[in-house]
Amino acid sequence: MNELLERLARWSLLHPSRVALRDDEQTVTYRQLWNRVQGVAQAIMDSGVQRLGLVGDNSVAWVVADLACVRAGVVSVPVPTFFSPSQRQHLVETAGLDGILLSTADVRADEVAETVGGGLWMHRLPVERELSVLPPGTVKITFTSGSTGTPKGVCLSAAQLGRTLRALDTRLSQLELPQHLSVLPLATLLENVAGVYLSLFRGAEVSVPGLASLGLSGSSGMDSQRWLSEQNRWQPTSLILVPELTRVLIEGAESGALQHRGYRFLAVGGGRVSPSLLRRAEKLELPMFQGYGLSECGSVVALNAPADNRIGSAGRVLDHVDVHVGPGGELQISGSSFLGYLGETPVDESHAVASGDLGFLDQDGFLWVSGRKKNLLITGFGRNISPEWLEAELTQSAGMAQALVFGDGEPHPLALLYPGSTDNGVEDCRQAIEALNANLPDYARLSHVYLLPCPFQNIDSTAVTPNGRIRRALVLESLESWLASAECLSTQSIEQPQPRMFAQE
User: Fold this and answer.
1) CA-to-CA distance for 73 and 107, rounded, in angstroms?
2) How confident is the model at residue 108 (pLDDT cuts 50, 70, 90)?
3) What is the pTM of this model?
4) Where does the AMP-dependent synthetase/ligase domain lie (predicted)?
5) How do residues 227-240 score in pLDDT, each as one tens digit?
6) How far apart, in whole angstroms, are the C-alpha atoms of residue 450 and residue 143?
7) What is the helix (H) or strand (E) element at residue 181, kind and residue range?
8) Could you tell me where in the chain the CATH 3.30.300.30 domains are found?
9) Looking at residue 425, what is its pLDDT?
């Protein structure tokens, strides 16, 4: 990461008036950016804080805060805006934050905060218990969305992030990408590293407008027409997309709503994208390239590129890591590993990370990811969800007798339910799901549920084990026929079209 700071200092001298950052309110040159980073970093060091949470929507101030933490040598902890209040509280407590940085727009009137310059304010937090010991060398803690609902902190080092940055720069060395637009939350490691860090490392311009201004809300809410309109307005040369944004961009190009065609590189991550969708992009001459990565590996592990692309694969492995296939076909990744999970025993950076994904390397070195070792779902917005977690909520909190959650690749999870009591009519079920959704993080809220008229075992006697557990694989193999026996109920809290899983392409 020192190399990134060195580059910023260099650009501030060589190209002082070149635009580095833009948002809805301001434009900042490289000289101004470097001056702000140094000023905020000094204020952070003077404050004596050790672990700072970065709070707020995408903005120039957020990027300045992040870089200032690197410069000051304190641990930064991005706080995703889409986390629920309980998840945010869990993050603050487990990370042992003793302060948070906010932009002027995010400071509440009743909040005691001190200005640190650069449009930023620091709110000190009382540390009510002894700080958890971090692995030596930790500079950033990135929290996953929490497949079980409880976010997990991944401790990363400057060396690891630097390796990822250099490897990405090498992979894309033949491309000039002068204008990057951040359309994912900056608290997302993929956007943070491969979007902002890489662009600034290369002396490019990064636009970081508030996500609401782009038509995005939370982690999974979207006004597609607004989002496409903003693409036409900002006219970027590069984006990092999750599967749902990929679909919207392609459909916008097909319908004519997307007029901007100046893209040079559209990276797709956060979940699997069907080869048929990528072929549609190819026909439209949209330069869309799929990749693969893990937070534990500092983000990107493999990436397709214009001169080296194989649709359906995740691309060639970057030169800073090694990937091999372990027992049971699980991908094992070494060469750039994390320091450990927050609150757990530190691990050696040289150890191999068990990805939990199944896959293989073909004879030409392209990585193919075929599925997940466990039942983890990844939504179209790149959020990880354990179906067992939501199934427990449905049966224990919403009063359903049986529940099976599915919807890998859908914008929101879906569920096949047997309500149980004959008293549970359609409207009662709707109200129960609405009440449950209100207490879930936005990315985990159910958009549609399918109500069975009888227990699973009455439809197929082999669908349930003797101890009452639903045989997931068996039901999913013939899911369409199961759904044909059920009544579809859409929730009012999430306005979504019918799930696309059975739509004709």
Assistant:
1) 24
2) confident
3) 0.84
4) 13-325
5) 999 999 999 999 99
6) 32
7) strand 179-181
8) 386-502
9) 80
Compute the distance between CA of residue 372 and CA of residue 349 in angstroms, rounded to an integer.
24
d(CA 328, CA 370): 13
- In whole angstroms, give the CA distance from residue 394 to residue 443: 16
> Does 146 score more than 80 pLDDT?
no
Count of all residues that appear for the chain in the document: 505
| Class of domain 158-328+347-376 (CATH, top level) | alpha beta
Alpha-carbon gap, residue 177 to 199, rounded angstroms: 8
Burial of residue 153 (CB within 10 Å: 0-12, 13-18, 19+) is buried
Produce one character per residue of 406-420: b if its CB has 16 or more CB atoms within 10 Å, e if not: bbbbbbbbbbbbbbe
Cβ atoms within 10 Å, residue 505: 7
Residue pair 116/47 in contact (Cβ under 8 Å)? The answer is yes
Alpha helices in 175-263 (DSSP H): 189-190, 198-201, 224-234, 243-255
Task: Kindly state the tokens that stand for 200.
Answer: 């600034």
Question: What is the residue type of 105?
Answer: A
Provide the pLDDT for residue 238: 99
Structure tokens at 150: 């409880």
CATH class of domain segment(s) 386-502: alpha beta
Q: What is the pLDDT of residue 505?
A: 42
User: Measured between alpha carbons, how far is 477 from 404 in angstroms, rounded to an integer?
Assistant: 13
Q: Where in the chain is the domain with CATH 3.40.50.12780?
A: 158-328+347-376
**DSSP string over 83-138:** S-HHHHHHHHHHHT-SEEEEEGGG--TT---EEEETTEEEEE----SPPPPPPTTE
| Mean pLDDT confidence for 339-348 | 90
Burial of 262 (0-12, 13-18, 19+ CB in 10 A): exposed
Distances (CA, A) of 498 to 58, 328, 450, 481: 30, 36, 12, 17
